[in-house]
């Protein structure tokens, strides 16, 4: 349903998206993960026909976003990370405005708007002015706006950002319902466990490049062509880190408080040897354990936080 | 009939409906109309007072008061029209609603045209609200109804042209403040050109070709509507082959069309890669 081929977006010398290729199946939910400035919003803007790629191609429903933007717009419902609302309108008038903008037949509008408000739990606020709604309600109203022309694809850029826990849960439930309706969803978020619950596939992007892309249950394993060891020491942390970096099997060492996060590509025997070298060197090792491969750890491991 | 009228594209245009709703719900609208009427009414009354101090009042014989009000109104319009459109697109951008609007089925042209029409509609409301003032002025000196209509038609051209300048600035610049600042700059520049032209009126007889520039001055055109045989426009050396108002309208409306085209280009987020497509097609033709 969504496909990018060598997609590149450059601002001067800065590459916001760098040779990005991905494919999202119809009816699936794709989680786009990455630190701030990684290129998620830029990619979504290109797919929403709002930005022209510098090179490469992007297709939605088989239509090129540059060559046939009108057809792409018919297929997508786009919700940017930050968006405003027209304060002087009520929730119903707000949706009526977009129904008009999407040329929804006039006779269908009132029933459609009623259904959408019900879907996003805003039936009670139908006649409330938009500026009186809370942030969570505005986000849900924005989601209803995305659905006004019954698009096949939803492009949602951090729809849960800035919401309190209850609003997040409500938003998550609505998105699950939409997924149940067979919509193809491309969603970005910083809350990785939430994405893992909703998505089939996760793509991790950093500095414009897709650095990991796999089904949600395989992403940790795929990323972990290595394992991450957490070694806690009483002191001499930097010295121990330097020692470990000398090993051919260690690709990266990060310091986190009094612990070292070691990216290790060897096997179990090598892991034992590594511990032995620390102990024989007299380093005060408090604990030595393999990190659980949860999504957040995977994210922290593979991304460097550049641009955050 | 009413149903037919209500189904017209113009009436169902969502941007127009929203703009009308929003504009009429804010107290700013009432304040703006009151302020406009206060300024125009105040200046008109002052003009009538000053005009009547030293002369005998002869109702129905003094059209110059009417002309003065028309020119004051024109100058006010020259500020209000671009001022209203200056925030049309940049305001959407600042409110973070523009991107969403651009992903709908509304084309950039339709968005811009709707914004222009909605601002114009409001200016017409302001203009109509000044009609009672004209009624007062008519007590002191009348003009033919056809001239009144001609004046309003001329105002329409001025509103479209000046409104389009504001809309273009609003599309070009990201912030409304900058757009308004540049509009102010343009107004000052226009005024300087105007003063320069005034200085040149003395040498007009030697250089009739200056009429091509002179006829672009809206104030001269309003004057010409009431005084068709005035000093310059009625001169035998006038090189214009058409009435000055027609020349003015052609130049200004053509410029407005050009500005609209440029604004559409600026607002269109994704431009088709025609050159690349042509290359691909050429490659397909010649393997």
Automatic annotation (TrEMBL), chain A:
Keywords: ATP-binding, Nucleotide-binding, Transport
Start and end residues of each ABC transporter domain: 2-232
Signal peptide: none
InterPro entries on file: AAA+_ATPase, ABC_transporter-like_ATP-bd, P-loop_NTPase
Record-linked Pfam families: ABC_tran (PF00005)
Taxonomic superkingdom: Bacteria
SMART domains: AAA
An annotated Gene Ontology molecular function: ATP binding
Membership in a protein family: Belongs to the ABC transporter superfamily.
Name this polypeptide is given: ABC transporter ATP-binding protein
Organism in which the protein naturally occurs: Tumebacillus lipolyticus
